[in-house]
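Run folding on both entries below.
>entry_1
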Amino acid sequence: MGAPAAERVALMAIHPRYADAILDGDKQVEFRKRRLASDITTVLIYATFPVQKIVGEFRIREMVVGAPDAIWEEFGDVGIIDRNSFGDYYASSENAVAIVVDAATRYERSQPLSELTPAPAIPQSFSYIARGASRRERSARG
């Protein structure tokens, strides 16, 4: 028997407009082309340029995978994206992933990636990091 796997969170790159909408409670689902690993329950929100910092986090209620048209039908009205942009994003994809937000928390002070230990690269879409890599997360759990 090996040691238990370290707990992980997803570090997800999200355009600032959509990051704010998630943290304000307006955007209730994040659309992706790939499903997150099954052990992931928390997503750290990295707001992309010009913010370039972790601005908050959200817990995942569920991940739903399906044909893009079916995902749009179920979640389009809470995704804060127009139908044409959604269609363009999934134009060559057989499946779409809807990551349903359970609860979102905006950090009082946004956090640059350089404050994480070890400091990760800027994620292209998302990456996985160890739970507790963020000083904020360590102090919140402490």
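>entry_2
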Amino acid sequence: MADETDISLEKKWFYEEQAKTAVANFKKKNVNAQYVPGRKEALSAVLEMLPEGATIARGDSVTLEQIGIIEKIRKNKKYKFIDPFARKEDGSYVLSTEDRFRAQREAFFADVFLTGTNAVTLDGKLVNIDALGNRVAAMIFGPQKVIVVTGANKIVKDIDEALHRVREVVAPLNARRHYLKHRFDWFADLPCVRTGKCADCNHEWRICRNTVIIEGTYARVKGRINVVLVGEELGI
């Protein structure tokens, strides 16, 4: 008798079909892209793209933590790792604010920048919203290579759906994550942290400050951006 409670095969099929479409469209826009079935394969794919001796920087990303790449790089002495988001056991930052900003600026001169993304459109676009802008800025310009790892759950139909996702889903969850896990007590009064809904507020700690749509890569730096689409639900 079929197990009606298990739809893992259906999800796997759906994610792969969606990813195939996105991958094909990324390639038309000078972006390298590939689909892998799970986080184990994603980890291997990223490691294969890291040159020995490279200086590697990272953006803040739950997905990168989930596939295990951050811990792997931290322990591997053949890389220089710029990690502005290293945290103590209580969730607070290891670096001071000044040192963290300095590390975020250093990321522009890295050989490789690792990051997640907030949304991927079927026609091959990356959509992100940042508070400070360090992540989206490095995705656009600076590091020689950008590697974007994302779960297939972030694939959406178009820009409208992407913007809805980042404002109504990603931003409230991410702000709540920082409040609960990273001791950002000053986030407590953000409308999205209190209600789970975007109020298009003008709060001084609003995290939706920089909205960026990457529609491809300029011909001169073709292949600079590399997208790894993972057939699992990852990140926020």
